[in-house]
Amino acid sequence: MTIVPVILSGGTGTRLWPLSREAYPKQFWPLVGAETMLQETAGRALGPDFAPPVVVCNEAHRFLVAEQLRAAGIAGARILLEPAGRNSAPAVAAAALLVAEQSPEAVLWLMAADAAITDPAALHAALGRAVVAARAGQIVTFGMQPTAPETGYGYIEAGAELPGAPGVQAVTRFVEKPDAAKAADFLAGGRHLWNSGMFVATAATLLAELEAHAPEVLRTVSAAIAAATRDLDFVRLGAEAFGAAPAISIDYAVMEKTRLAAVVPASIGWSDLGSWAALWEAGAKDASGNVATGPVEIVDSAGCFIRSEGMLTGVIGLKDIVVVTAEDAVLVMPRDRAQDVKQLVDQLRRAGRREATEHRRVYRPWGNYEGLIQGDRFQVKKIQVRPGQKLSLQKHFHRAEHWVVVNGTAIVHRDGEDIMLRENESIYLPLGCVHRLENPGMIPLNLIEVQVGAYLGEDDIVRIEDTYGRN
Asked: Rounded to 5 degrees, what are φ and ψ at 321?
C-alpha cells in the first residue's frame, strides 16, 4: 500500500516579511537551498512507496504550485484549491475525502509545505514506524527532540510505547506554546517533544475522528467536495460550502480530543523556519556567527542575519541584528524580536500599504510583471511571458499601452490583426482596443510596457477570453 503525501500549502508566513507576503508566501521561496520549500517538501516523498502528492493551497496560488512542481519534475499531483483560508482542519478533511473516494484505507502523510528537514534518512525511518501505527488505527504525529527551551512551538507529552508499534508512544497531552520557565522544565524533564505539525493516518481514521469531534467541519467540507469542479490537475472546492466551514486547526479540532493520538519521537534536523531567527539558526555561519545571503558586505559584525534580494546591503558594527532587503522594503530588528514581525505587518495592513501583502513583482499563470516607475497618469512595467503562454484577450476603458520587446518574440493580437514583434520592436495599443500578448517562442519573452491614462488600476481589465479560466 503506497503512502499518499498531503502537502498543506495555505500559509502566508507573515513572520518572514518582507520576503514572504500573502501574494507570494514563504513556501514558494528558496530559504535554505536551491529549491523552494514546496519543492523540497514534495521531494521528500518520491519513490515507489509514495503516490503522487495531494497539495492543498489557496486558489490564487494554483499556478505557482503547478509550475513549481513541474519544474521539480514531480508529476501526477492533484492540487486541491481552497476558495478561502479556513485553517488546517478543513484542509485535512478535504484531502482525506478526496483520497477516500478511491482508497479509504490509504495512509496519508500530512505535512506543511514550509518546514526544513536536514536528515531525510532519519525522517523516512520515523515515517516507517508511524505507518505501522497508522495502519492499526492511530493518528501519529512526529515529535521533534527539543534542543533548546523554545517558546515558539507547541509541545507533546509522550507516554508509554504502543503495543505492536515499536518506537511509537501514546500521547499523554498536547501543550500550548509555553513561557520560558515552563519550556526549560520541559527540556530538562525529557518527556516533552516539539509538535512538528506532521501527521500520519488512514483517510478512514481521519474522517471517523472528524465525524466524532468536528462534525461541522466534515459536513461543510463534504458539501464542498460534492460541489467541486475538476479542471486538469485542479480540484476546485465549492466556494459557498467551504466558506461555511469552521476556521479551526486540526490540532484543536481532532488531535487534542481523540483517544487515537500517538507520537514518533524523531531527531531529523527539523525547523519550521517560522522566523528570521529560525533561519539564522538553520543557516551556514561565518567565523563571527553571521548568516549572509545575496549581495551582502559585512564589517565588524557578529551574530547577524543579513539577506538581500538584489540590492547591495552593507552592515557595520552590528551584533545579533536581522537585516532583510527586498525589492521594495527593508526590515531591521534585533534578532530576539523576530516573533514581533507580525505586529509590523498588521500595522502596514491598517495603513493600507500594498507592501503588506504584495511584492513589486506580481506572478500570473503566464509569467510575471514588475512595476518600475509610477507617476501622474502614467506607469512603466516590465513584463515576462513564459514560453508558449499568453495573456487574456482583453481591453481597458481608462488606459492606452505601448509595448517594447526587450528580448524574445511576441505575437500581438490587436483588434483582429496578428502582429509579430521581435527584439527592439514596439506596438501601440489605443484605449479600448481588444488585444492579447503571446509568446510563441522557446525562451522567455521580456518587454517594457508604458501605460498612460486617467486610471491605471489592475481592475481596469475586461477579460473577453482567458486560457486560465479567469474571465
From this structure: -115, 145
Angle between helix 203-213 and 88-100 (nearest 10): 130
Burial class (CB in 10 A: 0-12, 13-18, 19+), 21: buried
Report d(CA 437, CA 390) in Å as an integer: 6
Query: pLDDT by residue (tens digit) across 2-35?
Result: 899 999 999 888 999 999 999 999 999 999 989 9
Contact status, residue 460 vs residue 401, Cβ threshold 8 Å: no
Q: What are the DSSP calls for 334-358, one per residue?
A: EGGGGGGHHHHHHHHHHTT-GGGT-
Cell numbers given for 108: 496519508
Q: By the 8 A CB rule, do 448 and 410 touch?
A: no
Buried-exposed string 126-140: b where 16+ CB fall within 10 A, e elsewhere:
bbebbbbbbbbebbb
Sign of CA dihedral 148, 149, 155, 161: positive
Quick one: average pLDDT of 344-357?
97
Q: How far apart are CA 177 and CA 197, in angstroms?
A: 13
Annotated domain spans of the chain: 3-271, 276-346, 361-465
Q: 3-class SS at 58?
A: strand
| Grid cell for residue 339 | 516573533
pLDDT 10s digits, 81-125: 999 999 999 999 999 999 999 999 999 999 999 999 999 999 999
Residue 215 has pLDDT above 90, yes or no: yes
Q: Which CATH number fits domain 361-465: 2.60.120.10, 3.90.1150.10, 3.90.1640.30, 2.60.40.1120?
A: 2.60.120.10
Tell me the torsion sign for CA atoms 392, 393, 398, 401.
positive
Q: Report pLDDT for 471.
A: 67
Buried b (16+ CB within 10 A) or exposed e, 389-415: bbbbbbbbeebebebebeebbbbbbbe
Q: What's the CATH fold of domain 3-271?
A: Spore Coat Polysaccharide Biosynthesis Protein SpsA; Chain A (3.90.550)
- pLDDT recorded at residue 231: 83
Global pTM exceeds 0.85? yes
Candidates 28, 255, 2; CA nearest to 107 is: 2
Instruction: Give CA–CA dist 297/465, Å, rounded.
Output: 49
The CA distance from 170 to 261, in Å, is 6
Average pLDDT over every residue of 330-347: 96
- Taking the C-alpha atoms of residue 381 and residue 369, their distance in angstroms, rounded to an integer, is 7
Q: pLDDT band at 468, cuts 50/70/90?
A: confident
Q: What is the mean pLDDT of the chain?
A: 95
Q: At what angle do helices 215-226 and 203-213 cross, to 10 degrees?
A: 120
For 372-398, the pLDDT digits (tens) are: 999 999 999 999 999 999 999 999 999
